Amino acid sequence: MPAPLRCAAVVLAGGRAARMGGGAKPQLVVGGRSMLAAVLAAVPDAHPRVVVGPPQPVPGDVVVVREDPPGGGPVPALRAGLDAVDADLVVVLAADLPFLTTDLVADLVADLRAHPAADGVLVVDATGRDQYLLGAWRTAALRRRLAGPADAAPAPRSLRAVLDGLQVRRHRPPVPEGRPTPWTDCDSPADLDRARAAVGVPPHPTG
Asked: Where is the MobA-like NTP transferase domain (predicted)?
């Protein structure tokens, strides 16, 4: 029986968070913990767990790396994260998913393992929109798509271009009524207020 494929996690935690007034958006608190802490808690057994972005508080076993150039966007960030990965599979996640669950991550990885011809599995939200920063991937497939200019083809410039060139399965997770969706992200102060309200915290200034 083949050995099970190992799984790493890369969390993209860069960006300037301009709509949040700057600062470290992943460190904003929802439900008593930072959004980054919530995402890392959803991948407790991944190895390594890699956070891409500026220095910020993380557990001692988490590797923090910086994309080049800093703030250069998700493609350089993903490339930097994969440089720290030696596992066959990698979960690629945004750092602002306060309601991400271990069950959803496990479902993504299990789906990918069950379909050897697939390069990746990503979440599709209730509107049918692909969530590019909520998926599980074969590390080698991502590296091929991120090949630099010295290789046969130039690297894609957008994350969508990277992933659209792969054999991708779509996963539509069930969401219990009255619960926040696991793909809920926080790109604006209004998003953050809604996320906090979902866990019973009155809106208050960003921070």
From this structure: 9-150
The pLDDT score that the predictor gives to residue 53 is 93
Residue bearing the bigger pLDDT, 206 or 116: 116
**Domains of the chain by residue range:** 7-198
Fold of 7-198: Spore Coat Polysaccharide Biosynthesis Protein SpsA; Chain A (3.90.550)
Cα separation, 116 vs 3, whole angstroms: 14
The Cα–Cα gap between 155 and 126 comes to: 31
Q: Is the pLDDT of residue 145 over 60?
A: yes
Of residues 165 and 170, more confidence is placed in: 170
Sort 198 into a burial class: Cβ within 10 Å, 0-12 / 13-18 / 19+: middle
Is the bond preceding 69 in cis, omega lying within 30 degrees of 0? yes
Query: Of 205, 207, 196, whose CA–CA distance to 32 is shortest?
Result: 196
Query: Which of 96, 11, 93, 14 lies closest to 54, judged by CA?
Result: 14
pLDDT at residue 152, rounded to an integer: 45
Contact status, residue 76 vs residue 67, Cβ threshold 8 Å? yes
Q: How far apart are CA 89 and CA 92, in angstroms?
A: 10
For residue range 21-53, list pLDDT tens digits in order: 656 789 999 999 999 999 999 999 999 999 999
User: What local confidence, expressed as pLDDT, does residue 3 receive?
Assistant: 53
